[in-house]
Amino acid sequence: MPARKSKTSSAAVSTTRPAGEAGAERRKERRGRAGLPAPSSRRGVSESPDRIALLPLRSDVVFPQTVVPLVISRPNGIRLVDDVLVSERMVGLASQLNPEVDDPGIADLYPTVCIGSVLKMLKFPDGSTRIVCQGQSRARLLRVVQTEPYLIGEIETLEEELDEGVEVDALVHHVNRLFQRLVDQSQQIPEELQVAAMNTHEPGRLADLLASSLPFSIEERQTLLGEVNVRSRLERLGQYLARQLAIVELSTKIQEQVGSELSKAQRDHFLRQQIKAIQEELGEPESENPEVAELWERLKAAGPPTEVLKEAERELERLGGMHPSSAEYSIVRTYLDWLAILPWAKCSRDRLDLRRARKVLDEDHYDLEKIKERILEYLAVRKLKKDMKGPILCLAGPPGTGKTSLGKSIARALGREFVRVSLGGVHDEAEIRGHRRTYVAAMPGRIIHGLRKAGTNNPVFMLDEVDKLGADFRGDPSAALLEVLDPEQNSTFRDHYLDVDFDLSRVMFIATANMLESIPSPLLDRMEVLQLPGYSEEEKVLIAQKYIIPKQLDAHGLTVSDLEITELGLKRIIADYTREAGLRNLEREIAAVCRKAARRRAEGRRGTVTVGPAQLAELLGPSRFYRELADRTGIPGVATGLAWTPTGGEILFIEATGMPGKGQLTLTGLLGDSMRESAQAAMSYLKSHARVLDLDASRFNKTDVHIHVPAGAVPKDGPSAGVAIASALISLFRDLPIKEALAMTGEVTLTGRVLPVGGVREKVLAARRAGIRTLLIPRHNEKDLVELPADVKADLSFKIVDTLDDVVPRLFEGRGSRERTKPGPIKPRSRRVMADKKPTAVSRPVPPKSEMSRGGSKPRRPPNP
Predict the structure, then answer these.
(1) N or C: which terminus of the chain has fewer CB atoms within 10 Å of its end residue's CB?
(2) What is the pLDDT of residue 87?
(3) What is the CATH number of the domain that holds 615?
(4) Is 716 part of the annotated catalytic residue set?
(5) Dist CA 203 CA 615 (whole Å)
(6) DSSP 692
(7) 770 and 700, same structural domain?
(8) Per-residue pLDDT for 543 more than 70?
(9) Catalytic residue among 720, 727, 731, 853
(10) Do 455 and 412 sit in the same domain of this protein?
(11) pLDDT class for 448, splitting at 50, 70, 90?
(12) What is this structure's pTM?
């Protein structure tokens, strides 16, 4: 159908003007000063002026034939309105691309503007101006010809193109239908707009009315303003209306869904309260939620105390009033599950057969008589007194001595469940006591977790590596263990998550530790400490033959007909390939031998593989350790001391040498403060008792003494090297070597007394392992020799000493007099008479600090002489 073009009228609304020719001349003069074009002589025609003042709009788009209010706050905009009000009242309404720009140019404006007339203006006290404008026609902005005092631009009027026909009518019907659906869905469209749309029959006028009134974006409105073809404008308007309708429908659906959920929860609660009230009036039992009823039955079956059951009942009432979709519902449900699953009243029955328990303990572990006797005593008392509280034992000893495996054997002997919790590296108090339920993802602590895992309230609970607990800003776990390991308090243990008391008095707690020094004193005081000493060579051979070799043969798919390790081979492995108090490395070496035999068997070679000392170099490589005692003896100034480490005992060489100087003392070997003080005390004793010790006193002021303890990269500390340091200095100044195969331990005071030390068993075993034949030990450590194996005591000669006067004669037994390096008069030797009175009480030796051993290839803890 042929197109018919029509022009939109741009005539301004007539207003009251000044009367007479003088008024017209004044208006013409004022417009000329402002740079505005002269008014057209043909009023009411469709043509617009070529130049027009531009009013930038931040967030508004004005369409033809629409009336809109505008707020003007910029000074140039206010001046523009003042000027146009005294003239034709015509202004170009141009929308800004960026509303943040305060001084826009042509690049900041949309190219399509609306020419409108100012109908009314109001000024407000805040300095802003409000005007009412009516759009007249569309125009294209060509360029800006003036920027001061406001923008004046050249424009080109755009003529509207209207294609009459069925397509346009269909588009108008489609737009009206979408608009009506939008009105039905949204409650924010004013009734005046609905009435105006119903009374508008011109397609272009309808499109402009809806575009200016509906919540479209500035870009969409500007696109509709710039579209002069009415059919295209209606098509694009239909797209925008359809999208806006989809947004409104989706928003309404979401709102209805949320509202229905809330209303359903409120309705359910209201109905539940009504049912409860009706049942109370009728005297009928209240019908419960099946899930709540199931939880209640489980809680009653668990048999918790009365106060726990009351707390659970209160939480169940809360749970019954909650909607399952709420977050609090899952928190309360998880809490009640924990209460229902804990073994409040479930316990295992103890097997009180002492003969069977002894048999089980002997099958699993060799020796350890003190530990086995303690377990049998517990069973005996338990048999006589049924309500006996569980003991708190602490198994302390070097690594590899069987502490953890002993806990499993104890549980098997008692017929109880076994739970092991590793505490090494734990820094958070909540790991023991749990988190409070106010925290997200809160859970009970390891104690409650262990009881849930055991399923009984009287398991054997092993707290492994209790000496390696840490503390930081999250709390001190060792402090949380004080209540757990106190028999007088753990009957009312309260986990933060459960917040109810749980009885731990039936639990048999067993803690393990390598060092007692790092355990806090209050915690150590609550435990009964049982020492697990290191094994002698004979004990290791027996344990290997009875336990380790059968275990490794089974683990590698071998039998006794495939591999045989002789007793001499085992001794060679223990002496040359392992140097430890426990058995862990010995088991590794035996496993390595088994792997060699397994490979031989897998390759098809039959026959028994016999491993003796001669085959070890081929199977395990060269020896890793050697006996260095023979290399160090026979040299003046060298003494053999004994050291204790968490991994067992070690021998320690003290080397002293002298050089011309001024009597200075130098100490090297990465020594701690205690060891340095021992050296200074020994040196002071020598200087003050030179005559008694048969030493040349004049040499002290002319000789610089250097004391060194080899393995200088390994820290060493402890007071028990005092006797060895003093002996090395006496040997140096006498220029006589100390007796071969002699070692010593003990702390020395300035008066020459020898004080007791700790770790005697480990030190004795280390001395025997190194080939020592004679040991000097303090008098008050004589009691520690009782627990030594008989074969160890038979191989060693123990010399008990009280003072250094007792030590010196034994250092050089069998040594003849030697000529001194520096000749001098030899004084007749005299022995200082010591007081007969000995101390009435000797304090218990404090175990030494953490140390490292110098025996292995990797550094361990420092030795404590």
Answers:
(1) N
(2) 80
(3) 1.10.8.60
(4) no
(5) 108
(6) T
(7) yes
(8) yes
(9) 720
(10) yes
(11) very high
(12) 0.58
